[in-house]
Each structure stands twice: as structure tokens, then as C-alpha cells.
From TrEMBL:
Function, as annotated: Putative odorant or sperm cell receptor.
Biological process per Gene Ontology, one example term: cellular response to lipid
Membrane topology category: Multi-pass membrane protein
Domain G-protein coupled receptors family 1 profile: 47-297
Protein name as catalogued: Olfactory receptor 688-like
Alphabetized UniProt keyword annotations: G-protein coupled receptor, Membrane, Olfaction, Receptor, Sensory transduction, Transducer, Transmembrane, Transmembrane helix
GO molecular function annotations of the record: G protein-coupled receptor activity; olfactory receptor activity
């Protein structure tokens, strides 16, 4: 009878909060990582806000390619801000506790913004495909209206498809453990604490990854395969070089983004032996692209670079040159 009562009480017990312990295995010196992470976050905010101001300020940048870049900047700010304030609070103030609702909301936001970033890269790939393969029809196919439609479709796709992750996580029963060996609320990290079966959560995340990230990656590389085929048919070497240069910045970003996704997946295999590696990679994958995306475009795109200089008050020097 006592055993039955104990089992009943245990089954009814529900933890009220989770504890984000930080980087597993290096808790003693993980606070030293706060400085580079804070600098990356500040860089991401400043660079992406500068991108938005420059695109808004410069009439020559009111084109679909730069409008998509502006949307990417908004997504990058959202992605970095979803995780970095809490991570810095953990490292600086030891504020490790997070309520269940806040944790589930973070799961939703992370996956939504990640899917949005992947979706915007797909839109940018299609933009370059149309520009290079169908230059005469470009202005009629890709315009402000099509950018708005593509953006709304990405918001709806990721906003709706991501809903099952936090909903299913909230349906799990967390009756004993509440310490997450992570700096953020990852879906698999949270559901691994559940006392009941979390197979449906793992299957749902895998399906979401294949549908969104996997589908986008396949379509992006298919677009670039068609671009390369079209470019190789050009007779002029100068025309070939010019065509490839128009999409070099985007190609660098998508290779970096999807390579990081693959590396992040592979590092989870080493998670048991060196547990902090996948956790650190997960954090960096959420903050490094927002910090470096604007820099790649600024270095590779002359129009954007000139726009930066004008916004920063260097317009007179630019005009003299």
C-alpha cells in the first residue's frame, strides 16, 4: 500500500522550472567564454541594424536582393536575441533557472528563426537563379510583391510547422530531473528529462529538420546547379565572371550555414565522450551567422559597402573617389 502511494505521488510530481547548467564539463571556467560571446552578440546587433538602416536610407538598394538581405538581418537579430541574453545571464549572474513556459517558448523561437533563415536563403537562391537564367523576365518575376509573398510564406511555414515541438514538449511529464546540460532550451535536451516516452518528440524534430532545413538545402543547391549550368554556356569569360560574382556573397553564406548544420549534427555523435562540444557548437551556430552574414555582404558587395560609408558619414570621401 505504501509502495502504491509512493508511485502515485511520484507520478503526480511535476517540476516547476528547469536549470540550465551551462557548458557541461567546463563549469569552472565557462564564464571566460562570456566575453567573446557578448562581443559576437553586440557585433550581430550593430551589423544587422546597420544593414537595415543602410537599405532603408539608400534608394539604390531598394531592390529584391537587398530587401531579402534586410529580412535576413531581422531574422538574425531575432535568432541571436532569443538565446544570448539568457546565456550571458547564466555566465555572468549564475541565473540558471528558467520556467517551463519560458523554456518551451525558447524552443519555438529558436526553431522558427532557424527555419526562417534557411527559407530566406532559399528565396535568395531563387532570386539569383531568375536573375542569371532569365535576366529579361527578372523584373516581372521578382519584384516587391513577390518578396512580400515569399516572406509571408516563410513566416507561415515555419511558424506553423514548428508549433508541434513546444506543444509535444509541454505534454511530457517532468517528474524528477530538471537540470539541462546546456546553455539554452534545446528540444531534445528538454524532452530527455521526461519521465515518460519522448519518442514522438524525437520523430517530430527529425521530420521538421528534413522538411524545412533538408528541403531548403536541396532546393538551394539545385538552384545553384542550374545557375552553374547556365553560366557555363556563356561564351564570354567576362560575362561568366560577372554572373558568378553577383551570387558569390550568397553562396558563401549558404555554404557556411548548411555546413554548420551538418557539423552540428555530426558533433552530437561525440556528445557522450566530450559533452561540451555539441553544446558549444549549438550556441555558436545560433550567434555566429548573425554576426558574420552582414560582414560577408559588406565585403563582397560594392553597393552595400558604399551605402555603409554614406550612412556612417563618409559620403564625401566616397564621392571624391
Amino acid at each position: 500500500m505504501d509502495t502504491t502511494l509512493s508511485i502515485t505521488n511520484s507520478s503526480r510530481l511535476q517540476v516547476s522550472e528547469f536549470i540550465l547548467v551551462g557548458l557541461p564539463g567546463i563549469h569552472e571556467w565557462q564564464h571566460w567564454l562570456s566575453l567573446p560571446l557578448a562581443l559576437l552578440y553586440i557585433l550581430a546587433l550593430i551589423a544587422n541594424i546597420l544593414i537595415l538602416i543602410t537599405i532603408q536610407h539608400e534608394p539604390s538598394l531598394h531592390q529584391p536582393m537587398y530587401q531579402l538581405l534586410g529580412i535576413l538581418a531581422i531574422v538574425d537579430i531575432g535568432l541571436a536575441t532569443t538565446i544570448m541574453p539568457k546565456i550571458l545571464a547564466i555566465l555572468w549572474f549564475d541565473a540558471k533557472a528558467i520556467s517551463l513556459h519560458e523554456c518551451f517558448a525558447q524552443i519555438y523561437a529558436i526553431h522558427t528563426f532557424m527555419g526562417m533563415e534557411s527559407g530566406i536563403f532559399l528565396c535568395m537562391a531563387v532570386d539569383r537563379y531568375v536573375a542569371i537564367c532569365y535576366p529579361l523576365q527578372y523584373s516581372s518575376i521578382v519584384n516587391e510583391a513577390s518578396v512580400i509573398k515569399a516572406t509571408l510564406s516563410m513566416v507561415l511555414r515555419n511558424g506553423l510547422l514548428t508549433i508541434p515541438l513546444p506543444v509535444l514538449a509541454a505534454q511530457r511529464h517532468y517528474c524528477s530531473r530538471n537540470e539541462i546540460d546546456h546553455c539554452l532550451c534545446s528540444n531534445l535536451g528538454v524532452t530527455s528529462l521526461a519521465c515518460d516516452d519522448a519518442t514522438i518528440n524525437r520523430v517530430c524534430q527529425l521530420a521538421l529538420a528534413w522538411v524545412t532545413l533538408g528541403g531548403d538545402m536541396g532546393l538551394v543547391f539545385a538552384s545553384y546547379a542550374l545557375i552553374v549550368r547556365s553560366v557555363l554556356r556563356l561564351n564570354s569569360a567576362e560575362a561568366t565572371s560577372k554572373a558568378l560574382s553577383t551570387c558569390s556573397s550568397h553562396l558563401i553564406l549558404i555554404v557556411f550555414f548548411y555546413t554548420a548544420v551538418i557539423v552540428l549534427s555530426v558533433t552530437h555523435l561525440a556528445g557522450r565522450k566530450v559533452p561540451f562540444i555539441p553544446v558549444l557548437f549549438n550556441v555558436l551556430h545560433n550567434v555566429m551567422p548573425p554576426a558574420f552574414n552582414p560582414m560577408v555582404y559588406a565585403l563582397r558587395t560594392q553597393e552595400l559597402r558604399v551605402g555603409f560609408q554614406r550612412v556612417l558619414g563618409l559620403g564625401e570621401n566616397v564621392s571624391r573617389k
